[in-house]
Amino acid sequence: MALLIQYTLISSAVLILVALGGMFSERSGIINLGLEGIMVFGAMAGAMVMVLAPADMPKGLIVVLTIGAAALAGMLSSLLIAVACINFKADQTLVGTAVNMLATAAATVIIKAFNTVRSNGTDFSAKLDYNRGYKAFIIHTKYIDFNWFEVVALVLLIVATIVFYKTKFALRLRACGEHPQAADSVGINVYAMRYAGVLISGFLAGIGGIIYIAAANSTWHFDYGVAGAGFLALAVMIFGQWKPERIAWSAVLFAVFRSLSNVYTAIGFLHALPISGTVYNMFPYIVSLIVLAFTSKNSRAPKAEGIPYDKGAR
Amino acid sequence: MEEKISFFRRPAVQTILASVLCAVLGILLGYIILLTMNAEHATEGISAILTNFFKFSGNTKVLMKYMGSFLVKSMPLILCAEAILFAYKAGLFNIGAAGQYTVGIIASLYTSLALGWNWFFCVLAAVAAGALWGCIAGVFKAFFNVNEVIAGIMLNWIGLYLCNIILGGAKCMDQTKSETFDIMATNPSAVLPAFMTEFFGGNKYTTIAIPLTIIIAILILVVLNKTTFGYELKATGHNKEAAKYAGMNAKRNIVLTLVISGAISGFAASQLYLTGMEHYTISASVPGMGFSGIAVAFLGGLHPIGTIFAGLFVEYITLGGQYLNTNYYNPQVADLVIAIIIYLCGFVLFFKSFINRPGKVKVNANAEPANTSAKAEEKEV
């Protein structure tokens, strides 16, 4: 049971952050399908920091640097989406998909090249091993192991909720996602707001990416990307109706199902059932499909999402 | 001069120009990536990708054999792209094509290896499986208002895990080699009929998949442009509400579009796996064919025939990655180049409106209609 809670906490930290990222972006009017790719970029940058950190570096510094690098990489890669979708009015679905493909391919190429150079041409794999960095994040307690990542996720969730409901900035951002022309008419810079939305999503998804790979594993094969976690987060966001507190609850719900596939062997009665382990892998996806079917009917998606803002349009 | 401008303003010319520009820029960026990885061998690397199997051009028989394999691998890619294009014309982004392709693999390999069916029925099974998967996404979209992209992605993963469960069993998979049995040895009746094997240097994998793909591309072209159904699909894609107002059954059209799109994707899987060239191995990620199909469809200017050429090009570059010297580079560089090309396709709209930008304003009344017609063309894309 402790194991289940542990995995659930990790998965919900990932899903909360990435879904919040998606929320900020969509509230500003940009559908960010590239979350998955941004996560990969964030994960790669964070893992690189953990691998390259010198052995005598204090744990606290590793934690800060890793998360910082992941967030920065996430923001930089989200610029790929921002530039194409905001300035060049590109099809947001296409660009998002392209960023996802780009991320996996780029991560594979970069990590392989990195490994080849580091091992003097004996290691061609796309695998990074960051055991020491992984250990730096763990907080041992008597019953379950916590993780610095969960603390970070909790803090960011609180900050995001406050920002979202209590600041002028978020009000303006949301206006740009509902009716950009109206927002523009009262002097809000729609392009700047949308850039802000996408960059925040990059920041959060980048951190989500490093949590995804480093919270429960000490190695990662980058040719797998992040196995659809970004898309699961989008489902969480829709289920959460683009509101931070609802996103948090739905993320926990999804995380429970996701964790079952990791820990079902340790839970007696589940293990006894004559079901292949792969079935548990399908669970989160099946559940999210069904859940979406029931919640999408009255969905309150931002009105102007997916439509490039054209100053001249009426 | 006047004539030349009208030439460049023709939508077809612009589409081709834009795609070629994307491809060239993509290759150029690929070259820069190679330069940053290893400057010394970059030129050699990019020419290895571009020369590809033509390095065997001294020996016609070998060359044609490679050419045959290249065509066999391109066909499913083109079919996936046709599936995506077809749905896109109706305003649906069928990212679920990857999952529909995956269930197509399940159906074609299970019926052929475990049930020992004849090829014709195996293909039908794959088509039906793909159609079913498309239908699920369509029903979710039409009746529950679930975004087809999200539903498609969830179904992709469900399909992948199903595939691992079903094909991972002892009936289909050689447990020692952990790949599915060789279809040519297990059930030769399930192998697609051969096509011009002699011409392709005795390549045993060239099958009727090649002509069938071309026929399907032409069929799609005809359905989209010459039938009421195609017109309704495009109308729904342009403006759902207007189509509904005009008496078209939007829900039926959504489901039907995704069923057809799924059927084509499922068919695509059968056209590769029933040649015996490809074996399924347990995989942790959804087969990339459906995603590359998105690239191909957009690079092909969302035109059924343009897609054929784009498919050949993308497969050519992917294949080229294998000719890179692995001491300096890894084959995934080719995937990276393709991802860059799709990303660049996002800028096509901008490129077109740049060419179509109204010239220096002559008379205000004249400038207005010119501008709107340019916009109408943009929307058509």
What structural class results from the helix and strand content of chain A?
mainly alpha
Q: What is the terminal separation of chain A in angstroms?
A: 57 Å
Strand content of chain A: under 5%
**Taking Cα atoms only, what radius of gyration of chain B do you get, to the nearest Å?**
22 Å
Class inferred from helices and paired strands of chain B = mainly alpha
CATH class of chain A: Mainly Alpha
Helical amount among residues of chain A, as a percent range?
over 70%
How would you characterize the overall build of this protein?
The complex is a heterodimer of chains A (314) and B (381). Chain A is 71% helix and 4% strand. Chain A is built from 13 helices and 4 strands. In chain A, helix 1 (2-27) runs antiparallel to helix 11 (244-263) and helix 3 (59-87) crosses helix 9 (190-214). In chain B, helix 13 (289-299) packs across helix 14. Classes of the chains: A mainly alpha (314), B mainly alpha (381). Chains A and B meet through helix 3, helix 4, helix 10 and helix 13 of A and helix 7, helix 13 and helix 15 of B.
